[in-house]
Amino acid sequence: xxxxxPSRKRGGHAYGRxxxxxxxxxxxxxxxxxxxxxxxxxxxxxxxxxxxxxxVRCVAAAREGRMSLxxxxxxxxxxxxxxxxxxxxxxxxxxECWNWQGSINKRTxxxxxxxxxxxxxxxxxxxxxxxxxxxxxxxxxxTGVKTTCGNKYCCxxxxxxxxxxxxxxxxxxxxxxFELAIQIQTLKQSVSEYMIEEAMKxxxxxxxxxxxxxxxxxxxxxxxxxxxxxxAVMVDMLEGKHITQSDPGFDLLRGLIDNESDxxxxxxx
Length: 269
Known about the structure:
Elements: E1 26-30, E2 45-49, H1 56-63, H2 76-86, E3 113-114, E4 125-126, H3 128-134, E5 145-147, E6 160-162, H4 171-176, H5 178-220, H6 226-238, H7 243-246, H8 248-263
Antiparallel strand pairs: 1-2, 3-4, 5-6
């Protein structure tokens, strides 16, 4: 059998190489999603297989069947992205389909998740099954992924099989694993807390917007006293929400006025 050769071709869509045989040569590339996979303690790079940009350590773990749903194994900057993704998935038991409940492309009717991964792919939209693979089997780049259930909306990692890397899958062991059962329950709890926090943030934004609108209305009201108008303006300015601090149109107008003043300087008589 001939040795697999690395693919140096960078043009075209990255996922076009997902059906190629994975290379056995690696190169220094972007940092892996998971902790402990950097080249060094302070390094911002990981070793990835040249052909698929898959993390070498994640590939080794996947080949041994080491799949995990532990959010804490991810780098801190990736945990929020993972929680955002899993919050759009109907997480069930290991033997059920976890259907995607997020965005669906209206033109192709394909599910999609927005994520710009510089160095891994030029695409900003990824199939949820591939993202689910990244957050369970490992950062396997643009490795192909197939389901055992045939459901294109299923994001259950137990139904996902990364292609071309020789993943070992033992369904009985996964279903009976107490550790994975705990990880699923912990993931559900973390997602619930994330959704509550996001809902509270949205409610706070709406409340702040209503308060700002009320103060702006007070500022232009003819019935309000000067003291009330002054207080409303000062509160907005102290909180950084006044129109002069946030309105880009006002900034543009102020810039034009400043330029005009520079062109026509005032004279002191």
